[in-house]
Amino acid sequence: MKLVIFGLTFSSSWGNGHATLWRGLCSALIRQGHEVVFFERDTPYYAMNRDLFALPGGELVIYADWSSVQSKAQREVREADAAIVTSYAADALAATDLIISASRTLSVFYDLDTPVTLSRLRRGDTIPYIGERGLADFDLVLSYTGGAALDALRDELGARQVVPLYGHVDPDVHRPLEAASLRQFTLSYLGTYSADRQDALEALFNAPARARPDLRFVIGGAQYPQDFPWCPNIFFVHHLPPTDHPAFYASSRLTLNVTRRPMADLGWCPSGRLFEATACGVPVLSDAWAGLETFFTPGDEILVARDTADALAAIELSDAELERVASAAREHTLAAHTSEQRAHELIAAVSTTLISPPREMEQV
Q1: What is the pLDDT of residues 280-290, one digit of tens each?
Q2: Cα–Cα distance between 353 and 348 in angstroms, integer?
Q3: Which of 19, 129, 165, 328 has its CA at 20 to 30 Å from residue 143's CA atom?
Q4: Which of 53, 74, 103, 101 has the alpha carbon at shortest distance from 6?
Q5: What's the confidence (pLDDT) of residue 181?
Q6: Crossing angle for the helix pair 319-336 and 272-279, to the nearest 10 degrees
Q7: What is the mean pLDDT of the chain?
Q8: What is the SS3 string spanning the chain?
Q9: What was the pLDDT predicted at 319?
Q10: Is 156 left (phi over 0), alpha (psi -120 to 50) or beta?
Q11: Does residue 210 carry a pLDDT above 50?
């Protein structure tokens, strides 16, 4: 099967969660025998922080502007079995028009930011990657978020067929590091700064660090403001490419996941960090949100904290208990949450839609 994708970025993992997901998914699709072409506009924001320059086994098209690539995009879409446009793709509206007009090619929209999309819609804000007709013209809509979000995409944006396609991890990139000497910190947190995560980060990371000045804590990420409430025992590592994530996770006994507020409010929207850290064999402490138990069993495969006291209690757990949780979570992740598994799910969703009745002709 040939897939053409118009996405935010594949080449730069800086300040976004899309690139790591697409790298794992595209690699898995190619290993499974599918052809992949990925279109990405060459924006300065990502060009200055590019950490990958090609799609091995496929084609990465980095273009200056839509007019310069439109002819190639048309050719590739005409030859494709399915064409996908994603949330926050730089030329999403132009790509949508192109995809919808290609009658023999299955049209797919993949919302990797469903909570943000629905929040903007309900506030009456413009959604730059969805046109005036919403999602009604797509044959298939994929959502990074499950649960009630699937109904909302149908009811509020007109999607006709919606399937969840959750986060995942490439275990060839995210894997355990054996050296126990790497564990220099008690608790780590990896993530780009976001104001809507700050209350939870304060309760589950900063407050425990202040309460335990005898322990070492570490944050890795980008865009942290100068007025972030650092304290002497919190260390900082600037943005790390995905290949450096395993060493970062291995540097601590326990790593924290904090879900962005719109994601937590909607539920059923697992951060990719959950799958990365568990694949690396590191125990995870997560904030609480609806649907978490769909992905990991609280207490057995993941630790959950609702306040500072819960976070401090997790820190006090023995090495043996943390190892038990980490081992169970890694086993579950490798069985159900790999890029290979998601690639199979994507192809199954596309194949099912391809053999379904053709889309109805619009009444005029």
Answers
A1: 999 999 999 99
A2: 9
A3: 328
A4: 74
A5: 52
A6: 110
A7: 95
A8: CEEEEECCCCCCCCCCCHHHHHHHHHHHHHHCCCEEEEEEECCHHHHCCCCCCCCCCCEEEEECCHHHHHHHHHHHHHHCCEEEEECCCCCHHHHHHHHHHCCCCEEEEEECCHHHHHHHHHHCCCCCCCCCCCCCCCCEEEECCCCHHHHHHHHHHCCCCEEECCCCECCCCCCCCCCHHHCCEEEEEECCCCHHHHHHHHHHHHHHHHHCCCCCEEEEECCCCCCCCCCCCEEEEECCCHHHHHHHHHCEEEEEECCCHHHHHHCCCCCHHHHHHHHCCCCEEEECCCCHHHHCCECCCEEEECCHHHHHHHHCCCHHHHHHHHHHHHHHHHHHCEHHHHHHHHHHHHHHHHCCCCCCCCCC
A9: 95
A10: alpha
A11: yes
Per-residue pLDDT, 239: 82
Q: Give the residue among 131, 124, 52 at the shortest CA–CA distance from 91.
A: 131
Cα–Cα distance for residue pair 13/3, rounded to 1 Å: 22
- Grade residue 201 by pLDDT with cuts at 50, 70 and 90: very high
Residue whose structure tokens are 């990465």:
60
pLDDT tens, position by position, 75-95: 999 999 999 999 999 999 999
Taking residues 127-150, report their average pLDDT: 97
Is pTM beyond 0.85? Reply is yes
